Amino acid sequence: MAYDKPLPVPDPVTRPFWDGLKAHELRVQRCRDCNDAVFYPRAVCPHCGSRNLAWTVCSGRGTVHAFTIAHRGTPAAFRSAAPYVVAMVELEEGARLMTNLVEVEPSPEAVRIGMPVEIVFDDVTDTVTLAKFRPR
Amino acid sequence: MMGLSGRAAIVGVAESDAIGILPDKSTLQLVAEASLNAVDDAGLSVRDVDAVFAAGWRPTEVAEYLGIAPRYFDGTQVGGSSYVIHLGHAATAIANGLCEIALIVHGESGRSRVGMFPEGGGPQLPAGQFEAPFGLPGAVGAYAMACSRHMHEFGTTREQLAEIAVATRKWAALNPKAFVRDKLEIADVIDAPLICWPFGKLDCCLVTDAAGAVIVTSLERARDCRRRPIRVLGFGEGLDHQMISEMPSYVHGPGRISGPPAFAMAGVSHADIDVSQIYDSFTYTVLLTLEDLGFCGKGEGGLFVSGQRTAPGGDFPLNTSGGGLSYTHPGMFGIFTIIEAVRQLRHDYADHGPRQVADAVIGLVHGTGGRLSATGTAILGRD
User: Fold this and answer.
1) Catalytic annotation on B284?
2) Chain centroid to CA A20: how far?
């Protein structure tokens, strides 16, 4: 069955991020002036205002910062997938990104804040790869 | 800024003719009903309105429908808190002579979806690229995720969150306009079907059809109006993100920004607040706001609301209409926090027993919009 969930449409600034995932590489910007990680990808550093940003490749390891388990009220395309975990993962490099946790039971007993996780590259279509995470 | 305190007053408040499930009424019809009812409450005519404040609908759309040509308008749209923020903007404009009679209005056919204003973004926007692919369920998923962090950092429990839902329902039981009025126990909240853990259905606001409107004018003009003026003593606004994935800290909301200037302008302290209306999109929204506004320390919100402290008869009367959890919630609720605060401070319920907070003189209103994104705080006082 064709993938029917929402797909991102890259813009000129975010394109390297999405191209990176397609190549199974997690790329996050880092500010050359304040050295903070920047996510989502931007034309300007939200920490210091610099335009001097560089792409870096991340390890794909991080920890769960926060999560919810979606049971009801999901977007229509996700209804049959419920319950599923939506989480914020904090990368070793410092950025936080929204993701799904996979290969784990969707329950507050199985998922823990602070739990170590690693990236899973989910090739959802021929052109789009999503960054998901599983316990490590 | 001290020069703005108390110079504008609220002289009219109203809902649409009915609220609840209204499949035969369009969103703009609800807006018009509330607007006309509010100017009636003030003893004014819609022809007197020279300023329009709207979010969801644009001021152009509201003014066009009502057939007015305002000389001042503001379409600040930051979600359900917009209308509390509009109140501060209106008071500022009035104090500076830029307008005299301001209409702040919001209506939504949130449940029946008749003639709704357009919503949503696209797949190339930040939310479309970095949130939508993961299926986070709208506002509820966002607030639930933030709440998980509060539980983790401070040991806040679902039972403590449920205290808010139960207390708010007790207020709803006293309000004939409230959408749900049957008694709730803590266990009912815990056992309700899960929507997005840690929220069950009863941690979440209603979805209804409703509109509300507020009329603001100068204190001088207010004293010639039909109803006792309720003065706008202080106000503030704050925001620090739009998307929940960008919120700097899930346990610190923008109330920390909007609250202090409101208290400072009003020249009152927390102990002076007799009654509070704090936007309760979800139970956690209230708990976080109580902390952010400084009614208790950070992390102490769970303890603060325990023992039905916010219920009728408790020492912190909160969301006395029954709030978004039990009275009404068409999608963006902020306007209704102002309406209820004004009614309490006018002593509209003086003959309704515990529905009236006795001797209420100073009230706090607080809206939270978006994904815990933007807040407005206002402090009102009986003239």
Assistant:
1) no
2) 12
What does the pLDDT look like over B311-367, one tens digit per residue? 999 999 999 999 999 999 999 999 999 999 999 999 999 999 999 999 999 999 999
Domains defined along chain B, listed by start: 2-114+204-382 (3.40.47.10)
Alpha helices in chain B (DSSP H): 27-42, 59-66, 82-95, 126-130, 138-154, 158-172, 186-191, 219-222, 255-266, 283-292, 301-305, 334-346
The tally of CA atoms less than 13 A away on the side-chain side of residue B274 is 17
- What phi-psi label fits residue B112: left (phi over 0), alpha (psi between -120 and 50 degrees) or beta? alpha
Decide: residue B143, CB within 10 A, 0-12 exposed, 13-18 middle, 19+ buried.
buried
A92: tokens are: 């070793």
Q: Using 50, 70 and 90 to split pLDDT, how confident is the model at B120?
A: confident
User: What is the model's pLDDT at position B118?
Assistant: 87
Q: What does B312-351 look like in DSSP terms, one character per residue?
A: TTSSS-B-TT-IIIII--SS--HHHHHHHHHHHHHTTTTT
Buried residues in A14-32 as b, exposed as e (16+ CB within 10 A): beebbebbeeebbbbbbbe
Interface test with A, best of B124, B130, B134 (most A CBs within 10 A): B134
Contact A108 B126 (CB under 8 A): no
CA distances from B74 to B149, B178, B300, B365 (A): 35, 30, 37, 20
* pLDDT (mean) for B220-233: 96
Gap from A14 CA to chain B (nearest CA, Å): 9
With 0-12 CB in 10 A as exposed, 13-18 as middle and 19+ as buried, what is A9?
Answer: middle
- Kindly state the average pLDDT of the residues A45-59: 98
| Maximal CA-CA distance, chain A | 47
Residue B203 and residue B159 in contact, taking contact as beta carbons nearer than 8 Å: no
A77-100: average pLDDT: 97
- ipTM of predicted assembly, 2 dp: 0.98
Give pLDDT, residue B356.
98
- Nearest Cα neighbor of B75 from B39, B104, B37 is B104
